[in-house]
Design goal:
Elements: H1 16-30, H2 41-52, H3 70-86, H4 90-94, E1 97-99, E2 102-104, H5 116-124, E3 138-142, H6 148-156, E4 161-166, H7 169-181, E5 188-192, E6 204-209, H8 216-220, H9 224-227, H10 242-250, E7 255-264, H11 269-275, E8 282-283, E9 293-297, H12 298-301
Parallel strand pairs: 3-4, 3-6, 4-5, 6-7
Antiparallel strand pairs: 1-2, 7-9, 8-9
Helix pairs in contact: 1-2, 1-3, 2-3, 5-6
């Protein structure tokens, strides 16, 4: 059953603080699920309010005591009601998602960006395996979705040309919009491809991928927020590692001799290591993840 949004007493809620409290209460009572940029009702409500008011999304505190016009209150009420009634992720309602301060356009054609690889690219340019970012000449982003990782890679490795691919034509349309918005259309090329099949003949200094890695059982149990995303972007087979293993099989022919492979796999570490016991996986932990992103060198794969 779809949760019903209570009618907001617009005349009584006059400040940002009032609307934050109201939104948190309403969203909590509706039993919403989170995980698309926020993890709780307070942060999600703050994001929706700030985005609706075109304010910086990093901190609501400076604005809490600001009074709102009637039109602003009506807009916030509509957004909160839409979040509750549709159970769509907030990013689809605002058509925007953020990774490390970088804003990307998103809609229902792509999964909401939330990759830990993006965090690593921005924070240290994958320093654990890429000692000299300026030496990286060619990068491949498999399963690019919204194009966010291709864009962050282009920024992290300023001398590199980036190829980005996806099996979904809809996703590639969204990726093009983001690449154009960042002015990277001359450095980032898009390809419709099934992993490596359909790509031009080339080898890469770095291959990155945030592929579908959710188990079939988990996908079947998704709450509405996750069901709103393309199933194709989540489903990774019985143990979640079907596409990851295909990437491992195809990567050796696509990596330069000193190249590296970086893949995000969610909670699949045990399943992957059990299926490929001979590979020396290096796990790249970040501030918000542990054991969810691995690295392998070209020599490791051969």
């Amino acid at each position: 059953m779809t949760a019903k949004s209570p009618h907001a007493p617009i005349e009584e809620l006059v400040s940002v603080r009032d609307w934050l409290r109201y939104a948190v209460t309403s969203m909590t009572r509706a039993g919403l699920s989170y995980g698309h940029g926020t993890t709780n009702a307070v942060d999600e409500a703050a994001y929706l309010i700030l985005a609706t008011l075109d304010l910086p999304i990093d901190d609501i505190n400076p604005w809490l005591d600001c009074r709102l016009t009637l039109a602003e209150r009506e807009s916030i009420d509509a957004v909160i009601a839409k979040r509750i009634e549709t159970r769509k992720p907030a990013a689809y309602i605002t058509n925007s998602a953020y990774i490390q301060g970088h804003k990307f356009y998103v809609d229902e054609r792509v999964i909401v960006p939330r990759s830990f690889i993006g965090e690593l690219l921005v924070q240290d340019q994958l320093a654990a395996i890429v000692p000299d970012p300026l030496a990286v000449q060619r990068v491949l982003d498999l399963c690019t979705g919204s194009g966010c990782l291709a864009i962050l890679a282009a920024e992290a490795f300023p001398n590199a040309r980036v190829d980005a691919s996806d099996i979904s034509a809809d996703a590639l349309a969204v990726a093009k919009r983001n690449i154009d918005a960042y002015g990277l259309d001359k450095r980032v090329r898009l390809f419709k491809a099934d992993l490596f099949e359909g790509l031009p003949a080339a080898t890469y200094d770095l291959i990155i991928s945030n592929p579908p890695y959710v188990t079939a059982e988990a996908v079947a149990a998704f709450p509405p927020e996750y069901q709103a995303e393309p199933t194709l972007a989540h489903l990774g087979g019985e143990d979640g590692m079907d596409l990851v293993r295909k990437i491992l099989d195809g990567a050796p022919d696509r990596l330069s001799p000193a190249g590296s492979l970086i893949v995000e796999i969610g909670a699949g570490q045990d399943a992957l290591e059990a299926s490929r016991p001979g590979l020396p996986f290096l796990w790249l932990d970040s501030e918000t993840s542990q054991g969810e992103v691995f690295a392998l060198l070209a020599n490791d794969l051969k």
